[in-house]
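Quick note —
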Amino acid sequence: MPRMLFPTMFLLLAMHVTGSTQDDPLLQERRDFLKLNRQSMTVLGGWATANMITSGILLGQHQGEERVFHAMNIGWNAVNLSIAAWGYFRTPVLVGRESGQLDVIERQGRFRNILAFNTGLDIAYIVTGLYAWERGRTSDSNRALLRGTGKSLMLQGAFLLVFDAVQLGAHYRHGHRFLEGLQFGPDQVRWTWRF
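Predicted structure written out below.
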């Protein structure tokens, strides 16, 4: 009989731990958010790394407009890589501080607002790049600087526009799924999670 006690206790504990993590909708929402965020930051970090390596190699092989283009790409993607690393490693700490549904809802709203704002910035980058590139066509003294900078702004802005728009859609769907179970009554707030 004592031989069966330990395996039985272990099995019951494992079932309790497994059941409690599957039944906790906040924990599941956090896991889903972190997974989505880590995937996004991995894509951003991969883009940044690939750009920095490629432009680093090509920087020394070009002069003028192309050299400016590659130098801008390196600088731009150093920032992207920093953002990706911060988002990948810091987000779990911030999400871990949430204490309830309202914190989750606030985080989702803030994050979607940031992504919507970034999408607007991405369009501004593209337009500014197009302006600089076009302005470089008529400039004699700053031609290489304007055209190289413009091309880099358009390329990076276009990538970030697609990246942020895809993220915005994914986080909207994720947040919408979480909010579907929220119900308000005259004296209560109820939340159910269907799986």
